[in-house]
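Mods, move this if it's the wrong board.
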Amino acid sequence: MDYSILDFLGLLGAVGLFLYGMKVMSEGLQKAAGDRLRNILSAMTRNRFTGLLTGCAITALIQSSSASTVMVVSFVNAGLMTLAQSMAVIFGANVGTTFTAWIIALFGFKVDVSVVILPLIGLAVILLFSNKSRAKSIGEFLIGFALLFMGLNMISNYVPDLQSNPEMFAYLRNYASMGIWSIILFMLVGLIVTAIIQSSAATFAIVLIMCSKGWITFDLACAVVLGSNIGTTITPLLASMSGNVAAKRTAMGHLLFNLLGTLWCICVFMPFADMNAWLTEAIGQGDPNALYGYVTNLEQTNPDIYNHLFDNSLPAGHDVIKNIAAMQMSVSFGLSLFHTTFNLVNVAIMIWLTKVYVKLVEWLVPSKHREDDEFTLKFISRGMVNASELNIAQAEKEIAIYAQRVARMIGMAHQLIHTKEKSEEFNQLYSRLEKYEDISDRMELEIARYLNRCAEGRLSNEGKLRIAAMLGIISEIESIADCCLGVGKILNRKIESHAEFNDEIYSNIDTMYKYVDQAMSLMTAELSDLENVQEHSLIDSYNKEREINNMRNSLRSANIENINKGTYEYQAGIYYMDIVSDLERTGDYIINVVDTLKDTFRHKTV
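Not the wrong board. Structure tokens:
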């Protein structure tokens, strides 16, 4: 065999260059779009049809259904869209991925890409040295685009030449005439290859080249493309493994969409493939089945020309080369049409069954209820999307959950004040408060680590500012948790000194807690909807902070007078003021968060 290990490694390198080109192109586009890309999906998924169009558009732009569905998994994981909305976006992503096939089909063979690759890279390098961040990102997008097609050309050079290995060619032919079993076998080949290289576009490129050279028939090539639709679901499934239940359900929904679509297509495969061949011919692109027959006939009737054809020794203007070039375009067009019509028909059927999909996925991936006291991050995980801008949304949602958890500590501390001292209930509540404070410390650390990992990626200037702001916010929230535990520690010191609070002290503390609780509720509401921070909510927060400060000042003045009057003991007044001061500091930390929201999200206010 003439195909060596070095040739195989060259093929792997060519596929790697192809995939890397898609990655660079995708990241460049995401960086150029900046924070806007993160808002597109959340703004355009109000119903199943806008979600469908969104998924289609995003996938067409970033040239990878795997990348777009991984993004969708992350958005569901971050709570930016529901499972039902994600299904519509995933349906659209399957249609959008056909855009890549059309690019490869129309440009991969119709024009000599090598002619434009180097000029394109030259233009991109000029943009890379621009002072504008947007121009640099566009330059990286162009470089990725050039690398993608450079990889495509190299795949063509390094794919094993089956005609040079007759035993392999005969081996494939032995399995190419088994009817439906051949279809299933080649579908599995497409599934496995795509699962390994994690790109249906790369599989399509390889199949397109093999089919255009007459190595496999058009219907078997369609079977490989059909299998690649299932293989591309591996990437989202891997991404969802470290996500929450909603993320796992989204990835499972993607798998089911392609599995169920493949089942109906297998049932009518030959008529469906023939219909696409007929459509290709009707449009004027020729019969995609003709290439295989032409090359096979050439091999049988004129083996000398056949051999010269594949060792590139025929003259450039030879009639055989012209005929095969025309048939190559027909095959590439036919495969793209098959890929597109399959996904369009699949979407046309499945879009009306979204609710059924949701119920089926929820049944297949049941939720596991966890207690609030467990340390679990709900939205962020070890798995991160390649686009750092998109990871910020997950951190924002996690911070909102963090604030809500700490808000419960305020209620616990307040309850602890009214719990009988030295009782079992008091001890249990104090232990729970300690546990929550420990969880708070760990959550702060994990969120900070996640944000730092985001900061290491590709970020727009706005993204960098948001991360800096969020790091400040989680520090303030952790300080609020410290204050809540601080109340418990003050109460323990009070118990040890046998000091007693009277009804007036309890009443005043309750009033302070009411103000602090209201301020905390306003803050958590603002954090829960960072994309729409309301101006009136910020004003309410500042008003509440003034009420807390005024109450603290009033109680401090009254405390001295009450001690002098003997209303309560001096030691009780000390602990009383410690609690009041602790609550006032809690208000300060809350307003620090509000200040950060106002400064960083000012452009979001209405």
